[in-house]
Amino acid sequence: MKRKRSILIGLIIVLIPTFYYLNQHVIDFSPEIIKQWILSLGILAPIIYIALYSVRPFILFPASVLSLAGGLAFGPFYGTLLTIIGATLGAYFSFLFSRKVGGKWVEKKTRPRIEKVKSLVEKNGFVSILLVRLLPIFPFDLVSYAAGLSNVKTSHFVLATILGIIPGTFAYNFLGASATSNNLLNIVMAILLFLLVMIFPVLFKNKFKNFLDKQETK
């Protein structure tokens, strides 16, 4: 277990400067360009950002990219708020699609993984959804689809999603906002917070799996 943690931390430490180098010298896809494009939309920028995030599960666009862009364009706090709204809407639409329209299609495409998630949220509802949002050992959209197939209450799903995504959402937005910052302390804090959020699920993965196994045997 310790070896796996060391490998993960090492990979993160290597990937961050590698991504920075590629971004600056190869891809030339600077954060400032993304920021200016979003802000060029004027007063519609927040609305369009939320709209993009709400349909993201259906267009298979990486959530991490949008979250970083949100931090760049709107700052760590306003960006976090907009991202939470957009991500929650996207999760709700996925939940609704699975429950009302495409349940059979979703089950066919995501078996057998979705069965385990579905069973978990049916037994514990709010608590299970909150935990899998805080500790994302299952894909975000898979949880939404599985919850839609279960008997969990819509209000429990939405509230647990909002609360569960706050730490990770802020970490991504803070990291994105720091990309154009000249304040070294802000940059260091953003990176440390991001690493903490990324490593936290790994540290508690076994305990969480034990919890899941206990819930399945009930």
How would you describe the overall organization of this protein?
By secondary structure, this protein is mainly alpha-helical. The protein has one domain (2-217). Helix content is 85%, strand content 0%. It contains 12 helices and no strands. It has helices at residues 2-27, 31-39, 45-59, 63-74, 76-101, 103-110, 113-124, 126-134, 140-149, 154-178, 184-203, 205-217. The longest helix has 26 residues, at 2-27. It is globular.
Q: Tally the helices: what do you get?
A: 12
Provide the structure class: mainly alpha
Q: What does the radius of gyration come to?
A: 18 Å
* End-to-end gap: 28 Å
Mean pLDDT: 77
The domain tally reads 1
* Number of separate strands: 0
Low-confidence stretches: 26-30
**Main pleated sheet:** none
Give the strand content: under 5%
Shape: globular
Q: Return the string of H and E elements.
A: HHHHHHHHHHHH
User: Share of helix among residues?
Assistant: over 70%
